[in-house]
Design goal:
Blueprint (H helix, E strand, L loop, with lengths): L1 H22 L9 H21 L3 H4 L2 H24 L4 H12 L7 H9 L6 H21 L6 H10 L2 H15 L5 H11 L2 H12 L12 H26 L3 H11 L5 H10 L3 H26 L3
Organism: Leucobacter soli
Main location: membrane
GO biological process, one term: transmembrane transport
Length: 307
Amino acid sequence: MLGVLHGFAVILGVIGAGYLTGVAGIVKGDQRRVLNNVAFYVATPALLFDVLQRSDPKVILSPVILVTTVAAVLVAGLYIAASRLWFRQDLAATTLGATSSGYVNSNNLGLPVAVYILGDAAYVAPLILMQVVVYTPLILAILETTRGNRKGAAVALGRAASNPIILASVLGFVCAMLQLHVPVILLSPIQMLGTAAVPMVLLSFGISLRGQRALQPGSGRKAVLVASTIKVLVMPPLTWAICLAVGMNPHETFVATTIAALPTAQNVYNYAATYRRAETQVRDTVFITTFASLPMIALIAWLLSVP
């Protein structure tokens, strides 16, 4: 339990430093996007390549990823059903709401949680690959159709193929599967760059919190509350139940349930902002689930962690 508290202290400490940076005006407005861009295009790909190339393929192909994927699909379906019953939305808003319910923040917060709480980022890295390679093209294809673009699927697949996170993850995965050893002279700078990924994304997230207000009138409160409730209160116990049903061991159950408790990914907001669909709804869902997920993860660690 002390390890969990230490992990949260580290994560919240860096986020807090980012927030104070924004309050002090050291970084203003969109200047924080420099941190995001460097992390996205350089540091995070380096980190994921390093994590995956030295991972055990059995962990990469573990049932944890299958279970969390099934849970994500189920909660997305639950959101769609809830939206049909309680509030009507167009295709783009429904897609983004369903995505907000099950697309976990496996990058910005998932990696720190994996490193400091699960003790191994290898459990989260393949989930990032799954989300970016499988989920993202589908989401972008649907959003492209809302623009009247009949070539949405082709555009989405092209974007996914050129994503540096995908390229680095696939290359690392291949190295692990083929047991290829990367020369130290090449691996050392990659590892140094990778260590910068988590601090940069947490700092940027902290800076972005300055001045943000959630659940303002006209922001789609029902959709936000439904998506947030499903993400924080439904997906973790559902994942735990699936783990029990398929007979996963206690450690795998702990890992899968913890991953399911991660908040909605900021990537979903990026998609909403890019296509200008349900931006406020997704932003508020990311904001609420980010903080609501922390006590949930602590509770899961207390109940399920294996000494």
